[in-house]
Design a protein that fits this description.
364 residues; alpha+beta; 6-stranded antiparallel β-barrel; 5-stranded mixed sheet; 4 helices; 19 strands; elongated
């Protein structure tokens, strides 16, 4: 009898244990953050390749042999710097001859002028000598110009991006010798949809990231905005200028641009990943003080840069789910995975509130 009573008592306890287990409700693991006040920016995101504002193809203006090349690719040059020298013996001799003829004509002109003042010669004779002198002066200037062409000079300041000639080469007139790119500034041309035409203006700040310098944003400015829309693409051209004193940017680099056209200070925001939708049906899962998820409709403002502006539907300090929404339904209990210290937020009060929710969701 005693044995039977003991067995019955054990079964009763086991049944009671099973009943207690069935009352435990599973919690859905989530990560959370607080709705807080922070500045947000409105920006257009686009891509473009960098181009040099000024590019010059340096060509030979004379025919001859290149005697000396003074620059290499990658060298910085200033406008007027000598890049290469060509043989110039013929031009120097021609200039010397022209100057000698000029000296003779100047001497003749002085004698003729004195005679003309004394009215010893006619006007026509004096004019003929004077015109001959002016013509010879032009010949000397032309020979000086021809001699100057034997020194290849940089037409603009910039960086030598191509050297197309070597010492000893025979070059012809109008043959390309160098290419110079002016990287200060560099420009990026972005095709922007016409719906943004009313908000993008010259002078607005631009941020750019390039793969060649990962993680470093470059500051620029909108230099020009096209006044017309391309009917075939429905876009208009926006030209942004960038300057880099360290010389890290180069022509041809691919950049991801963000044109900032509005900045709002201290508005209510939540992480963008908290949103269940980004249209008129936008909503978030808000966690109440008992650790229960409640679907909350919200009115959005600007959405971008990882943040979403909340114009209506939440109060500052509200706790929202940022990860794990797919497993939630109205009234689902949650288990917070991220400690309060890791949750984006601001004040100590918000952190304490998050900690309290985290503690409650760790129980049963």
């Amino acid at each position: 009898i005693v044995s039977g009573c003991s067995q019955q008592s054990g079964q009763t306890q086991a049944d009671a244990g099973k009943g207690e287990e069935t009352t435990i409700e599973a919690r859905v693991p989530v990560e959370i953050a607080t709705a807080r006040r922070a500045p947000v920016t409105q920006a257009f995101q686009g891509t473009a390749s960098l181009e040099a504002v000024a590019v010059s193809e340096v060509v030979s203006k004379a025919t001859g042999v290149v005697l000396q090349v003074l620059v290499e690719e990658g060298d910085s040059v200033n406008k007027g710097d000598v890049l290469a020298r060509m043989e110039s013996d013929r031009q120097r001799l021609a200039l010397a001859q022209a100057k000698a003829d000029l000296a003779k004509l100047e001497s003749d002109f002085q004698r003729t002028q004195k005679m003309f003042e004394r009215k010893l010669i006619a006007n026509d004779a004096f004019d003929q000598v004077r015109f001959g002198l002016e013509t010879q002066r032009a010949v000397v200037a032309m020979q000086e110009l021809e001699l100057s062409y034997t020194q290849i000079r940089a037409p603009i300041s910039g960086v030598v991006s191509q050297r197309l000639v070597k010492e000893g080469n025979l070059v012809q007139q109008n043959q390309s010798l160098f290419r110079i790119d002016d990287f200060d500034p560099l420009e990026a041309v972005v095709a922007v949809p016409e719906r943004e035409m009313q908000v993008i203006r010259a002078g607005q700040p631009v941020k750019m990231l390039v793969d060649a310098v990962p993680g470093v944003p470059f500051d620029g400015v909108v230099a020009r905005v096209s006044p017309v829309v391309d009917a075939s693409s429905g876009t208009f051209r926006v030209v942004a200028h960038f300057r880099d004193e360290q010389g890290r940017l180069r022509s041809g680099m691919f950049g991801r641009l963000s044109i900032v056209f509005d900045v709002r200070d201290e508005v209510l925001v939540v992480p963008r990943q908290a949103l269940l939708a980004e249209d008129q049906d936008a909503a978030v899962y808000q966690i109440d003080s008992d650790g229960v998820a409640r679907r909350q409709s919200v009115t959005l403002g600007h959405v971008g840069d990882g943040l979403a502006e909340i114009r209506d539907g939440l109060d500052s300090g509200a706790i929202v789910v940022t990860l794990g929404q797919s497993g939630l339904r109205e009234g689902t209990k949650v288990q917070v995975l991220n400690p309060p210290a890791e949750v984006p937020g601001g004040s100590a009060a918000e952190t304490a509130q998050l900690a309290a929710v985290a503690v409650k969701t760790e129980g049963s």
